[in-house]
Known about the structure:
The protein is of the alpha/beta class.
Amino acid sequence: MEKMNVKPATGKLGVLCVGLGAVTSTFMTGVLMARKGLAKPVGSMTQYDKMRVGRGENKKYLHYGEIVPLATLDDIVFGAWDVYPANAYESAVNAEVLQEKDILPVKEELEKIVPMKAAFDHNYASRLDGDNVKDCKNRWDMVEQLREDIRNFKAENNCDRIVVLWAASTEIYVPVEEKVHGTLAALEQAMKEDDKEHIAPSMCYAYAALSEGCPFIMGAPNTTVDIPAMWELAEKTKMPIAGKDFKTGQTLVKSGFAPIIGTRCLGLSGWFSTNILGNRDGLVLDEPANFRTKEVSKLSTLESILVPEDQPDLYTDYYHKVRINYYPPRNDSKEGWDNIDIFGWMGYPMQIKINFLCRDSILAAPLCLDLVLLSDLAARAGRFGIQRFLSFFLKSPMHDYTENEIPVNHLFQQYAILKNAIREMGGYEADQEID
């Protein structure tokens, strides 16, 4: 073991969530219940997973927190922004994800989490009509107000550090525009000129967070930090960024199952994925412009796992289709159906059917916890810019497309990258041995 060079996790860790809907209220309630010993943070890698460090007689299996200094659940202080004024308790009840018995024991703490006014543009999420919204002169004023919110929250709650997590709805698709998104100077100028077409509200949150020395996590498929200007800001402020889009249901299955096809050298003719979802996210995604953002994210998974150039006989011209259907009766209990047409020996066709009946927020909440704790760790370890080791938790991993970098979507390769980053931050040697 080499010397570990990570600052200790001293003091309180502020977690500022953009959006106080089903995912965030489930995340908050679970953390508050877990630290009272009334619930288990199942699904959280930072709380449950163990990894090997060392080899031979020095080999041992440790929890992440035994390898690196992670903030504890007791360290966390929650805050939020939302377009609706409901506090975290009201939001948790309204979301109908958790049963009353799992909310009431922390009702008092949840009621104290009252959302700040959101930086919002109705054009980016036309299905939302909340009135808990900031009055901003322009995008630059939006940034300044958000920065003030972060400073005030940090001071009022005596926080040592802050992490900002986007767990709000998917915005309409914003294509990367080189003249606006290519450099930090151009981005700042566009904000000052109130370029509403190219500057989404989420970009203002990210800019504000990084400028205030806070890691930023993009939990939706928004373009937000997936632009060179934000990478430049992250380098300037020495802050980590992670994104994009929580890998919860269908894409989790896809990133884990596609490697089976590729590893076994079976051919793929087509992969059809469809979802039904009834929560606020489903409502927003029912708008075609917003779904386009999600579609780009979900379609990107297969292309770097089953690559035509690597195996032209097996993966040339396969058909990949993704749909999301808003279906209110299901609320947060979403369902993903996958039909996979494969072929084998001598080209004979076969089919695979997967039906994943899951709970969106129950799967997303542990991802929120892990991304927050590991982003905070990365900042204390001096890591900044794109955090590729967090791709394990995300649907459409960030990568430097300007250098033709290929993102890693293969779940088990992502897991190896995650473990090695933690090993290195803990002062252990990285390795590729599977165990």
